[in-house]
Write a structure and sequence with these properties.
This protein has 261 residues and is an alpha/beta fold. The protein is built from 9 helices and 7 strands, in the order E-H-E-H-E-H-E-H-H-E-H-E-H-H-H-E. It has a single domain (8-249), classed as Rossmann fold, CATH 3.40.50. The radius of gyration is 18 Å and the shape is globular. It binds nicotinamide-adenine-dinucleotide (NAD). Nicotinamide-adenine-dinucleotide binds at residues 13-16, 19-21, 40, 63-66, 91-94, 119, 144-146, 189, 191-192, 194-197.
Length: 261
C-alpha cells in the first residue's frame, strides 16, 4: 500500500464522519497522502478539526462556495501553508429540501434551480480556477456525482439537472486542463446515508430498493468510494481523464429491476 505517498490532497466537503469526503480522507491517508480540509461554516470547524487530527493534519480552512470571494479566500489561506498540491476532492452539493420531494415541475423554483447548480456544479470549476496555479504536474481533481444525472430518480428532482451539469463540467475541465497534465474525473456513488442524502425524501426506501436489486445485493460504503478516489488521485489512473466512474454495486447496468417469475 502507499499509492499516494508524497502527494498532498485538499478535501472539501467533510461535514460528519458519515460524509463521503470523510471516507475519501480515510483512504487517502491510509495510502500515504498528506491532507488539508475545508469546512463550510464556523459551526463545523471544531468537528472538521477533530477529523483532520485523526488523519494527522492541522490544516482546516473555511470555504463557503456560494460566493467567489469565499472560494478565493480559502485558496489564499491554503497558500499560506502549502505552496503546491496534487489532489483536489470536491464533495459538495446543496439544493433546498422542499425541492427534493414530489413532482419535479411543481417543486422546482428559479431560485432553487440556480442554487443547486451554483453550489453543486459551478463551485467545482471555480475551485479549480483558484487551485490551478498551485497544482503540481500530474495533479488529479475529482468530484462526487449520482445516477440522477442520467435517469429520473424519484424525489431527486432539481439535483438531477445539477449533477448532469457537474458531469459536463468534468468533461470541459478535463479538456481544459489536460494539456497541463492535470486530470479531472467524477465518481458516481450509489446511495449512502449522509446528512445531504437525508434531505432527499424517501431516501431510506431508496437504500432498501438498491440493496435488494443491485448486482452485488448491497449498498456501497464511504470506504468503497474512498478507495476509488485514492485510485483516481494516484498515478495508477494516469491515463484517465474526463471520466465518470460508477461505484454503485452495479446498479447503473440494470435494465429490469423486478423479480422475474
Ligand atoms: N450520499 C449519497 O447517497 C450520495 C450519492 C452520490 C453522490 N453524492 C454526492 O457526494 C457529495 C457529498 O455528499 P455527502 O453525501 O457526503 O453528504 P454530506 O452532507 O456529508 O456532505 C455535503 C457537503 O457539502 C457541503 N456544502 C454544502 N453547501 C455548501 C456551501 N455552500 N459551501 C461549502 N460547502 C457546502 C457541506 O458542508 C457538506 O460538507 C455531494 O456532491 C453529493 O451529491 C452523495
Amino acid at each position: 500500500m502507499g499509492i499516494l505517498k508524497g502527494k498532498k490532497a485538499l478535501i472539501a466537503g467533510v461535514a460528519s464522519n458519515r460524509s463521503i469526503a470523510y471516507g475519501v480522507a480515510k483512504c487517502m491517508h491510509r495510502e500515504g497522502a498528506q491532507l488539508a480540509f475545508t469546512y463550510q461554516t464556523e459551526k463545523l470547524k471544531p468537528r472538521v478539526e477533530k477529523y483532520a487530527k485523526e488523519f494527522g493534519s492541522n490544516i482546516c480552512i473555511e470555504m463557503e462556495v456560494s460566493s467567489d470571494d469565499g472560494i478565493s479566500k480559502a485558496f489564499a489561506d491554503l497558500k499560506s501553508t502549502w505552496s503546491d498540491f496534487d489532489i483536489m476532492v470536491h464533495s459538495i452539493a446543496f439544493a433546498p429540501t422542499e425541492e427534493l420531494k414530489g413532482s419535479f415541475i411543481e417543486s422546482v423554483t428559479r431560485e432553487g434551480f440556480k442554487t443547486a447548480h451554483e453550489i453543486s456544479s459551478y463551485s467545482f470549476a471555480a475551485m479549480a480556477r483558484e487551485a490551478k496555479s498551485m497544482l503540481n504536474q500530474h495533479a488529479s481533481l475529482m468530484t462526487m456525482t449520482y445516477l440522477g444525472s442520467m435517469r429520473s430518480v424519484p424525489n431527486y428532482n432539481v439535483m438531477g439537472p445539477a449533477k448532469a451539469s457537474l458531469e459536463s463540467t468534468v468533461r470541459f475541465m478535463a479538456a481544459d486542463l489536460g494539456p497541463e497534465s492535470i486530470r479531472v474525473n467524477g465518481i458516481s456513488a450509489g446511495p449512502i446515508k449522509t446528512l445531504a442524502a437525508a434531505g432527499v425524501s424517501g431516501f431510506r426506501s431508496m437504500l432498501k430498493h438498491v440493496e435488494s436489486k443491485t448486482s452485488l445485493r448491497r449498498n456501497v460504503t464511504i470506504e468503497d468510494v474512498g478507495n476509488t478516489a485514492a485510485f483516481l488521485g494516484s498515478d495508477l489512473s494516469a491515463g484517465m481523464t474526463g471520466e465518470i466512474l460508477y461505484v454503485d454495486a452495479g446498479y447503473r447496468n440494470l435494465g429490469m429491476n423486478f423479480d422475474m417469475e
